[in-house]
């Protein structure tokens, strides 16, 4: 039943695992692992009717089904072969990481899982995450019957992690301390770098307040919050790897990476589904160059002309609408068509809102975070990392959001 990650194909292992397998075969540094293939999902869910059920009911129904005989023993053997007892358990759906849709963060994954029995317990949750409201809302009619494989890989205890978008001639990199979840989910405003194969063109220091290690979130020391988390040698190595991956896979790539004891690991690669704003490549009047300048962050330090708020231009376009300050899912019912979503950060549960709102403003996060990627896929403007946006902007206030310049202006 178990498939080596190096042997993964799209048909048996889903898009994410298949790409990782291709990278392993090409000699790239990918953490060792294996795949619980789509056939196991089919065997467990055969005969079940999942459509129309709530997410909790789906989870309970799938979890109530017996796993195939011998699977637990195979999981234990496979974990012994990769030499790890602590692993990451990750989704690899049939509709993930495609050229037209990233499905960024839609499906559940688990870090720091210890032991084969615990891996087996996580499988139903990963499978069931295909049927959450956010995942169902994201899918197109052609994806009405998705299937799920599950990747099990060595858990990387990252010192630094992040995301890079390849491009010619420039690569954009965002990173922060600890695991990459902080960057991907937009939990911090990360360091941002523009790099070529031979030079680091731009460095912007983010306000990296927290870090995630395994399942633990902690505060970053004050002197590390304003210190760049990657040096030029590491940045040039990442940029070179990014270009090599893009050449190997045949096009520009959105790549997640981790650095552990100065070893770079590639955790994911997928086609870039929507181009970065032009300002992300050329710089804007708001660009802060060099290590001395930083996006430290107070609202006053990021104010533009005439009292506008300034952040990272995450998705291009201009929109006007009523600001809706949203603190959590309990506020979702206040969102209406054409509103401007203002929040701390977004996570995958918020994805359906992107099909309703006219634009997005977040207090934390960067150009390569969940909010920015999903906004670009929905072709709506977004400005990320605007400190104190939730208190500076008032609920119902008319605002103009410019995702080209990274500014938010109150109209009244």
UniProtKB/TrEMBL annotation:
Coiled coil: none annotated. Transmembrane segments: none annotated. The lineage of its organism: Bacteria, Bacillati, Actinomycetota, Actinomycetes, Propionibacteriales. Residues 12-275 form the Pyruvate phosphate dikinase AMP/ATP-binding domain. It comes from the Bacteria. The keyword Cell wall biogenesis/degradation does not apply. GO terms for molecular function: ATP binding; kinase activity. It comes from Kribbella antiqua. SUPFAM superfamilies: Glutathione synthetase ATP-binding domain-like, Phosphohistidine domain. This is Pyruvate,water dikinase. Keywords: Kinase, Pyruvate, Transferase. Residues 337-406 form the PEP-utilising enzyme mobile domain. The keyword Translocase does not apply.
